[in-house]
From TrEMBL, chains A, B:
The keyword Metal-binding applies. Its EC number is 1.4.3.-. Transmembrane segments: none annotated. Residues 1-18 have a biased composition (Polar residues). It comes from Lentinus brumalis. InterPro entries: Cu_Am_Ox_Cu-bd, Cu_Am_ox_TPQ-bd, Cu_amine_oxidase, Cu_amine_oxidase_C, Cu_amine_oxidase_C_sf, Cu_amine_oxidase_N-reg, Cu_amine_oxidase_N2, Cu_amine_oxidase_N3. It comes from the Eukaryota. It catalyses: a primary methyl amine + O2 + H2O = an aldehyde + H2O2 + NH4(+). This is Amine oxidase. The modification 2',4',5'-topaquinone is found at Y462.
Length: 745, 745
């Protein structure tokens, strides 16, 4: 049964089940929970809670597969622990689910483990989380935030004062970030406020000048913040010592006491929202005077008359010697697991799991309450929960296969996004080419085909496009594309803007960074891997003219294994063109004599965090302070080390105990171990007017490249390029001297 | 008339003209010389030389358009010197050619200026170049090098000693690089030697152990070098102080005296070439035992049923509000000039000219003669001269338009490459997207189309693919893709390899860097521009907890104009996430109040040079020592400042006087001036076995992005994505819950 109307616009509908459950056995032990399974798990939890606990009313927050131990999965799939050895004997795998929920009456939070036995899901444990620990914020709570502010009389009155009617009032619910004035155990959000002149008008064109804080359990506005304003520098400025030529309407960036009159403390007039529309929907754009769509973009189609080159069996995808498991994950969006490459009959494991484990977007403005804006879009909201339903010919071209996703609703039903991951092939330009330049010499050119696994997520105003791409030459690429709408705040006329860009009159986009933590659980030819840091440097102690370096050109590559846990946090060094590789010390290349590995190529995406090392956001998001972290994986009853900023991210106030910074301590051996890598990629986004009203995509790329892994270029067996459908652009003007011949081999 | 058989395999044929010349007037003053014009210019030079000089016999080396002054070109095209102002009145433009040739008898080099008056090309000047100055090396001289070594008895005998027959002998002619033992005024090359077991077999699989030096004027082998070999470290090692654990068979990396017995000095046995074949042509691959081409790459076509979205008139291309002039250049390959964008009726100039002005590939091995390997592929050989003839469905997909190229042959005829630049469109994924996540919210997705201007060049073993790409959002991207075959040398069994990778038995690929100098002659809203260096930094002097920065998150962007010539050489700073912009200080964005500009995004391609700062290669290739140089453009009778390592690159022995390092000196004002930028992009290539026998492409990307240039996102008028030909990958398995709907707007 489907109840489509209450789902967010990124989802397809809500799915519920009645009668006896028909739970199919999993095909792959990492298959995510199906909608039916989610509903069945909810039933089981609800029954258990009613019978055995004093919990009042359940608000389901998350419900997802608790993955079986790594070695059990590998044994099940017949993947050996070390390439060339025999796989371990298979053991029984119990399918388990993990559920977080809150008591809708008092906000207490619980974690539950449920296991499938036969056709029945049985609760194994219900654990009350410590006071102040907050599970993820659900999409329903985000929607609820808007309802709460609309129902609040003070909010309605404040809006009316700047000419905004109740029905025009909108709010993006955000995690509170950090605000020590509120008790840790209230489940709160900040409501970033906007007005909207019509049903589908771009609300971000009309930011409001106050920020309510809501409690999603009591469903009340509990406080309203008023940011101060900037003015030109005066004799005595708060920023005098910083070199920034402005003054603030208050004497500190710290939050005022809760019992002060926040509006009065801000010491500024009310700022009405900018009135002008800045739309992006075609029908609304068309109404703009003088607006005209381009009429000179001729159609371009991707046509695959014989179908696609990949095979799909449930969540298992096979393409061009690659084999992998692709799963929707409510938190990471996409998780790709058990990635192997068939190297001439030898199935070689490469990564056990690859995913986006966390991200943070710290903003630059210091004045309260703006520093609260540092969204952890993975840990606080869940990238999968925010994933779009994709459509043909829109998000991808050609022949597309979609995978569905599902997450739990407050009431225990499943919210379904039926096409949330798209899988398709793309031509990626030339793969390799060589021409013998001698007279009569021959050429060979081969085109590159790639498999693209894509998801698009809407985080309130922003959009992230995640592409996991596999290539015929053994490369794996993680590409993140940023688009959507900038987070904006209202700006007074003539107000200085030291921490943002004025995009349009009254519209201020604060500087910010997007910092992503890509989690790599490697198994390069087996689970025991070492990460090596390689520096390129001029031959040491060998000046130009010396006997060892006569012309001064000598340079070397110096590799250092990252050997112990306390050395796991690494820095980038541009001057040494530093790079890192994941190698298997047991596997030696027959010719180069170097260890088989995968090298991490991400220089273009490496970005230092700009918040101070002891800032609140740097503490909460330790992962973002370094481009690479290597830690040992430790599996336990709740799976491996998954979450670099902690499992429960909302409202943390410092470095969470079970998080990355604490794993990178001590003397644990990291070489030839079951290691994990957390790679930080990001950009510093100094907004441009060209990013408004919708931002053209910006790309972040991270490449994993086989190095001493294959005996030679593994794509030598890709047939030569010879596309018969390519033709001259202007056939009428084409003659013997300008026309193109087709490829000759 | 066409004489196809003597052209290198990258070209189409040789074109000669007889009878009266029909020279059409140029359409655009930067149109390159046509084959007819090249032949006419040669006739004119030959006649003049015969009548008025004592020069014996001309070997034409280069013959190309001498571009008219910038302001004359802009006036001719009606482009104003400052956006919004009236263009200057047009003045007469005299079409001129510049010709370099050498006296084939004595090697003296000459530069000639020839001007077109009516139908006649008239020699304006013939200037003898100073002793030791060497014009580019022609492709015929490269081919000649192989003939010379084959005709040399000593070479034939040395080859025979290691089992190589005369007909198996091959050589890649390389510039000598640097070797102070030979007089500057001999025109010499080093011959990197290979054997080949069959007509089209991969010769790089069989490197030889000696390196002849040839004089292309006397057509003689004048010396033969024998590299030493490495062995395991002994008690007293040349490399003891360097930390590298090897010993060399000689006691210095310096070259032995010319009168010493080079073979004896090398102090090692002869090394026969590895015997095994490593082929890449499909017919040869197929003969390999057990080899099988992949049969599961299904066809993928790009179809444009209504044709392309661009228009071409000669060399002028118009596409999606962009307009530009695209020219073949024998040295730079592609030069794109007078790039403008039609911003809602206002034609705004962006770049006057964009091209690859130089590059260098320094290798890491210090032992003589390997340090001579540091090819300047632009200045020594000419990227255009090495450009491939392209074929449909092979080098690009879809509807393609080709532009031809022509360069002069030794005898004054024109070598023609009829399809050397391909122009086509590509889908580039999503351009922007936003979804309103609210229940019932709407989405809009727009796909990105790009115009790709591509050339592929073969530099002996290597291939470079140059893509100049224009986007609908105002971005311009320069992408360089590297492929082809690694430069290799023979390696003894068990020989240590501290400066290279052993790709296959006996095959050693030395470490090296590819460092490219992209020359940007900007005219952002006019010729007077300023380059601004922007650092991102935490708010200075404002610790966490201070009144100015309570939570510690504040950061700012600090821009500093590069104001005087002596400050023109810039360094990258990763810790400040440094970036540079080219701005027009006269043009202020109406809302952001910042100057209109284009930002340079090239972090991923920035690479420090590894040769020592006082090394020979760093002196010759000063450009490569910094990621950005800003200098003032100075036009003269030979055009502007074009060549960062000097106009005449072969055989330079230090910093050439008229080169980049000398332009970046003194107090010349750089702000609001006619500036030039030289941007260094590159990679450090530590070869992998996976790069063998042909290297899968590696990408280098440099993006120019409008910043405060457009009032808002200039691509808001691109119609929404709606490709009706996209369809499910597995239609038979598609049902209501898995199928994809088409885009709804
Ligand atoms: Co951003
Ligand atoms: Co290379």
């Amino acid at each position: 049964m489907s109840v489509p109307n209450t789902a967010p616009s990124t989802a397809t509908g809500v799915s519920t089940s009645e009668g006896p459950l028909k739970v199919p056995p999993f095909k792959h032990p990492l298959d995510p929970l199906t909608p039916d399974e989610i509903v069945a798990v909810s039933h089981s939890v609800r029954r258990y809670v009613a019978e055995k606990t004093v919990i009042n009313a359940i608000r389901f927050i998350t419900s997802y597969l608790l993955p079986p131990p790594k070695k059990a999965v590998l044994a099940f799939l017949g993947i050996p622990l070390q390439s060339g050895e025999k796989p371990e004997p298979a053991t029984e795998i119990v399918r388990k689910a993990e559920v977080d929920f809150v008591d809708a009456v008092n906000g207490h939070a619980y974690n539950t483990i449920v296991a499938l036995h036969g056709q029945d899901w049985t609760v194994e444990s219900v654990q009350k989380l410590p006071e102040g620990v907050q599970p993820q914020i659900s999409v329903e709570e985000l929607l609820l935030c808007e309802e709460i502010i609309r129902a609040d009389e003070r909010v309605v009155k404040l809006a009316a004062e700047v000419g905004v009617k109740p029905e025009q009032l909108h709010a993006d619910g955000w995690a509170i970030g950090f605000d020590a004035r509120f008790p840790e155990n209230t489940r709160i959000q900040q409501a970033l406020m906007f007005a909207r002149w019509g049903r589908h008008e771009n609300l971000y064109a009309h930011p409001l000048d106050f920020i309510p804080v809501v409690d999603s359990i009591s469903k009340q506005v509990i406080h309203i913040d008023f940011p101060p304003t900037y003015k030109k520098k005066e004799a005595k400025s708060l920023f005098a010592s910083t070199g920034v030529d402005v003054e603030l309407s208050v004497d500190s960036t710290a939050p005022p006491d809760l019992d002060a009159d926040a509006r009065e403390v801000a010491n500024r007039k009310r700022l009405p929202p900018p009135q002008k529309s800045h739309d992006f929907l075609p029908d609304l754009l068309s109404q703009k005077e003088g607006f005209k769509f381009r009429d000179d973009v001729k159609p371009l189609h991707v046509v695959q008359p014989e179908g696609v080159s990949f095979k799909v069996d449930g969540h298992v995808v096979e393409w061009q010697k690659w084999k992998m498991h692709v799963a929707f994950h409510h938190r990471e969006g996409i998780a790709i697991s058990t990635i192997t490459y068939n190297d001439d009959g030898n199935v070689r494991p490469i990564f056990y799991r690859l995913s986006l484990s966390e991200m943070v977007v710290p903003y630059a403005a210091p004045e309260h309450p703006h520093p609260r804006k540092h969204a952890f879009d993975v840990g606080e909201y869940g990238m999968g929960t925010m994933a779009n339903e994709l459509t043909l010919g829109c998000d991808c071209l050609g022949k597309i296969h979609y995978l569905p996703g599902a997450y739990v609703a407050h009431d225990g039903n499943a919210v379904v996004v039926k096409n949330t991951i798209c899988i398709h092939e793309e031509d990626a330009g030339l793969l390799w080419k060589h021409t013998d330049f001698r007279v009569g010499g021959r050429a060979q050119a081969v085109r590159s085909r790639r498999l693209v696994i894509q998801q698009i997520c809407t985080l309130a105003n922003y959009e992230y496009i995640f592409n996991y791409m596999f290539y015929q030459d053994g490369n794996i690429e993680v590409e993140i594309r940023l688009t959507g709408i900038l987070q904006v705040y209202v700006q007074d006329e003539e107000e200085p803007n030291p921490f943002g860009t004025t995009l349009a009159p009254g519209i201020n986009a604060h500087y910010h960074q997007h910092l992503f933590s890509v989690r790599v659980d490697p198994m390069v030819d087996g689970l025991q891997n070492t990460v090596v840091e390689t520096d390129i440097l001029p031959l040491p102690n060998a000046p130009t003219g010396s006997a060892a370096n006569h012309l001064g050109n000598a340079f070397i590559a110096r590799g250092t294994p990252i050997a112990v846990a306390s050395e796991g946090a690494r820095d980038f060094d541009y001057t040494k063109d530093r790079r890192w590789s994941i190698v298997n010390p047991k596997v030696v290349h027959p010719h180069s004599k170097k260890n088989a590995g995968y090298t991490i190529m991400g220089k273009g995406a490496m970005t230092p965090m700009m918040a101070l090392p002891d800032s609140i956001v740097a503490k909460r998001a330790q992962f973002a302070t370094r481009p690479l972290w290597v830690v040992k994986d430790v599996e336990g009853p709740h799976g491996g080390r998954m979450w670099p900023s902690g499992k429960y991210v909302p409202q943390t106030r410092g470095v969470p105990p079970d998080s990355l910074a604490n794993w990178a301590k001590g003397d644990d051996k990291l070489s030839e171990e079951d290691v994990l890598l957390f790679i930080t990629m990001g950009i510093t986004h100094i907004p441009r007017p060209e990013d408004w009203p919708v931002m053209p995509v910006e790309h972040l790329r991270l490449l994993f490249r086989p190095t001493h892994f294959f005996e030679a270029n593994p794509s030598m067996d890709v047939p030569g390029a010879d596309d018969k459908q390519s033709c001259p652009a202007f056939p009428e003007a084409t003659n013997a001297s300008t026309g193109g011949a087709h490829c000759a081999h």
